[in-house]
Every structure is written in structure tokens, then in C-alpha cells.
Design brief:
Layout lengths: L17 E3 L22 E2 L2 E6 H12 L3 E4 L6 E5 L4 E2 L3 H11 L2 E6 L2 E6 H7 L11 E6 L5 H8 L8 E3 L6 E6 L1 H14 L8 E5 L6 H12 L10 E6 L4 E6 L2 H19 L4 E6 L5 H11 L5 E7 H4 L30 E11 L4 E8 L4 E6 L1 H14 L5 E12 L8 H6 L4 E3 L15 E4 L6 H9 L4 E5 L2 E5 L4 E5 L2 E9 L10 E8 L1 E10 L4 E14 L10 E14 L4 E17 L9 H5 E21 L2 H17 L11
Parallel strand pairs: 4-8
Antiparallel strand pairs: 1-12, 2-6, 3-5, 7-8, 9-11, 10-11, 12-14, 13-14, 15-19, 16-17, 17-18, 18-19, 20-23, 20-24, 20-32, 21-22, 22-31, 25-28, 26-27, 28-29, 29-30, 31-32
Family: Belongs to the bacterial secretin family. GSP D subfamily.
Pfam family, one: Secretin_N
Keywords: Cell outer membrane, Membrane, Protein transport, Signal, Transmembrane, Transmembrane beta strand, Transport
Amino acid sequence: MSAASRDDETEGLPTRSSMVRGSGILMDTSVAKRGVAKHSPSDVTLNFVSASVQDVAKAILGDLLGLTYTVDPSAQGSVTVETTSPVRRDQVLGILETSLQAAKLTLVQNGALYSIVPLSAAQHRGTLVDPGNSGYGSEAVPLRFVNAAELKKVIDPLVPENGLSLGDPSRNVMIVTGSANQRQTMRNLIRQFDVNWLKGMSFALLVPQWSDSQSVATQLKEILDADGMPTHGMVRIMPIRQGNGILVISGQASYLDQARKMVEMIDREAEGSQRRLFVYNVQNGRAADIASVLSAAFGGGSQAAGQTNLATAGTAGKNGSVPSAKNEFSSGSGNDVLGTNKRTADAAGQAIKLGASGEEMTVTADETNNALVIYATPPQYEIVKNALHRLDVPPLQVMVQAAITEVSLTDEIHFGVQWFFQARQNTYNMTQGTAAALVPSYPGFNYIFSNNDNIKVVLNALSNITKVNVLSSPQLFVLNNHTATLQVGDQVPVATQSAVSTDTAGSPIVNSIEYRDTGIILRVTPRVNDSGLVLLDISQEVSEVGTTSSSKINSPTIQQRRIASSIAVRDGQTIALGGLIKETRNDANDGIPFLNRIPLLGRLLGSTDNVRGRTELLILLTPRVVRNPGDAEAMTDEITSKMKSIEPHSAAARPL
């Protein structure tokens, strides 16, 4: 085989296709001698199901084969080795090696020592072994007739990933890496190309994207070998099922270009007519949510559940064939495709009609892998993929800083906190309703600080003139359009129904009990628009349990103060919600025991104190939009520094 220059490669080949043009320069090196490992034949049966690596190694390598072995401490997991019929002793190592690969482990031979190590560790070692060695390793394969660099480009799609590499260019050596079976397969593949009759020939490996290589090869051979064609008898065409490739060999490099164009043309005809199975890995959302959006956007029908045979719903190409399956799935960009001719799935799919022809496609959400399985024609998938790129975007996050406080209404702010805010240069409104239409309503009020004062500044200003009791000060991260809930309190049993049997005298009363949440309950749902405005749906409840005095029902009374509102606020601005005032009264009589209870005389021998208190529930909220991981990290650092700043340094110290 002749060497070829990279500059002479034909551009525009299908994806994963390679072409090598002949130049007539003969490459010849001596062939290394290959050793052969001999084993005494003996029939054995293996039956290990989910056994530990150590147990399998001891039973097979130690007890059965009598080999010296080690098991790397990091080689953990279970291994299944089963044979349906007796196998020869010299086949056991290959079977074990294949079974270890399922657990991402491999067998490495170093002289008389066999080691079981993680596959990743063996790949980094890059140990050169003899062809007869068992286990994972690398072999140097010298070539006689072909150029190693050019051959690698052709057969790379047919071998395992990282299975081929180039050795010393001056010696024309190729390095094959893998298990013993994989190395043997790659050696045999190289020998198929490294033959004398390919001397001076040009060849190409063409890989159809949408069609079966066997079908395309048949059509291509009929065209190029037709009577009267200049390519008649000048081109050899061989389908390669592994990798879905077509090997084209010719003495004229220009004929390879003709073959490539014909393969692309045949493949393109099948592309638009056949429905295929695409897998889109959702990166930033939930597959089920996106599937529902697609169904609604494209006018999807009702959800159909059960077993679906995708082959019966497909459309065959002009040659009546359906593409064979490939072991390739699309990534998040959705560039690759999995073709199939027989596949059933237990799934719930959304049937969506696209185009005037009314052709249906199916979108199924795989919640386990957070992926969308789409059965459609390539043009249909392109439409859906464009929509997916707009829907599957990183979600915004919002950090909500909150302070839930009780403010004592002293003489200076006897009429409420709203009068305190009015004296400052800010904007406020008495509100109850949505952000779009703020409806005045007393006693509640809504207040936005126009100069971006933060919560700490507001609390410090209030604490200078009255007593401020901070009930809770949470800081929550929540996804955009999701609800964050904070609850600190107890679940209180409340009697909702009482029943007694009328058939039996003296039957006990049976009460039905429900548990009610009490304490501090905050629910916030942020919605961020492109301009940075944050719409907040807020529900705040502060409830206490008291003794029932209005009835004889043996059930507690829940005293509740609750604010529910929707408000629009800029990123970083602080909003205050309040106006819920609670009044308490405490009457106390002091004096000489018993005598202070005597009418008229008791007033002369004692004193009466009537203490009244008024507190207002005040809620301060500051939303901060997190648009990227850097913002999240900065906010986390800010929270950490604030927590450290209020950390007590002595037993006497306490947080404000």
C-alpha cells in the first residue's frame, strides 16, 4: 500500500468517513515474531452471579488456573461470570476479561503476575505486552504495505475508543490497546488492509448517516458496475457492518470522489423520509416539563401509554429497508441519531402532528435519565430541536433575604410603622392585590425603598426608637418560577368532628383530629423578567396557639396573622409588608391577700395595673437575581461573612 499525504485528502466526506489516495511509495518493515500462549485444554463451567471481585479472582485465577494474581484495592464491585455450556480452560481468561469490563475493571498480565485493576488505571499505564499476553495492554503492530497514519484514519471508526495510536513514524508502527480479545480483533483488521495487492491503490471508508451500509453498498455497486460506466470493474465495494461503513477500493483516486457523492445522494434520499429515534439530553430543566410544553405548542393529542412498536410506525426508504441500529446517541446538541428497525418501549408518549401532511411524531420524557426520546423524521426533529435550544436554557435563581419581625408600637410610632416610613424619602403604597393593579386596602401596606436600603439599615433605624423582635431571618435560594417554603413551628391537633354511637348506651365519643401547621410559615415564588424586575408572590403567616374561651369545644384556638400579596420590585430593592397590628391587655391586682378582694375596701388596701401593648407584624424582603454561578458564589460568600460577623465570641455575647 502506498503512503499518502494529508494535503491530498478529499474534503466534504460524510461524518466519520475517511479516504486515502495512493502515491506508489512502498513501505516495508520486518514483521516482529509473535509468541503463542499454550494452555492445557480442560472443560470447565463458570457460574458466578453478582459475586465480589475478590471471590471471583480467587476461584478462577487462584483455584482453577493456579495463577499468581493480585486485586487492586480500588477494584471494587460485583462481577457476573456465567457459561451456558462447558468451555475449555484456555478460554477462561478471555471470558473473565469480558465480564470484568462490565464492572469497569480489567485484567493486566505482567510476566507471571495477573492483576485486576480499574480500567481507567490500566489505560493510563500504557504497558506494552506481547501478542500472546492475556489481559489489558498495548501491542506494537509493524506494517509492511500501508502507511500507519493513513490507515489509522480509515479504521478508527471500526475500533474501540482510544484503541489505536501511532508509534514511531520512522518505523511505520501502529499501537493497539485493549483487552486480549480487542487487540486480536484490531490486529486482524489491520492485516486485512496491510496486504501486497493494495500496493498503489486508493481506498475510502464511507459511513452513511441515515441508511444501512449493506443496502447502500448494493445500490452503489449496481451503479458503478453498470455496463457502459467508466467505473465498470474498476471499483471494489465491501459493506462493513461494524460501524455501518462501506469500504471502497480503486486504482483511480477520482473514482472515490464519485463513490462518495453517490453515497451522500442515496443517504440524503433516505434522510427525509424515514422516522428515527432521537435522544435529546435535557441539560437545564425537567424532561417531563419540556415534553408537556412541546405537546401544547405543537397541538399534541392525548397521552397514550403502553407498549409501542416503533418499527410498525416507521416508513421504509425507496429500497424498502430500514436503517440498522447504531450504538450512538445524540448529545445535548442533538447532532447524532439512533436508527432502529425493531424496538419496543413501555412509555407514555405525546403524539404531535407537524406539517400539512399531518405526519405524527412521538415525544416521550425519560425521567430516569432526564432525556427526551423523539421518534420523528429528521426535518421534524430539526424543528423540535430549534425549540429545545430555546427551552432548555439555564434557569435563573433568586436569593430572597427576609426578616420577619414584631415592632412594638410606642408613643413615637403609635399609629404604626407606616407613619415612620412616611417621614423618609421613599415610596410606599397601601396594597392588597397583584403587582399589575395595586389596590389600596387597610390595615395592610406595601413599602419599597427607592434608595436600595437593605434590611439591616431598616431594622437599625426602627430599633433606635422602639423595640424590634426578630422572629425569623431566613435567606433562601429558589429557582425562577418555583416556590420556596420556610416553616418554623408545630403541628397542632385540632378536633374537626365528634361522633358517638346511638346503638349502645354509654358509648365513648370519637373525635376526628386534623393537624394544623402553626408558627412562622413563609412561601415566596419569584418571577424574573428580562429587564430585571422581580415579581414576588408572597404568603406570610405567623400563628400562635391559645386556649379556647369562646366555646366549650376541647380544641385549641389558633391566633393567626397572615399576609398574601403579589408585588413587583427591582433586583436588590427591599420591600416591607406590614400593617397587621396585635393588641394585648394584661390586668393585674396587687395588695394584701384576701383583703384586696373585698369590694371597695380592696381598692384601698391594694393596687390595680392595666398594661396594654400593641405590636405590628413587619416583613422585610430583598430579592437578588442570580444569573450565573459567579453570582451564586458571591452571594454565598456574603452570607458566610455575615454569619461570621454575628457569631458570639464569648459566653456573654449574643446576636442582635
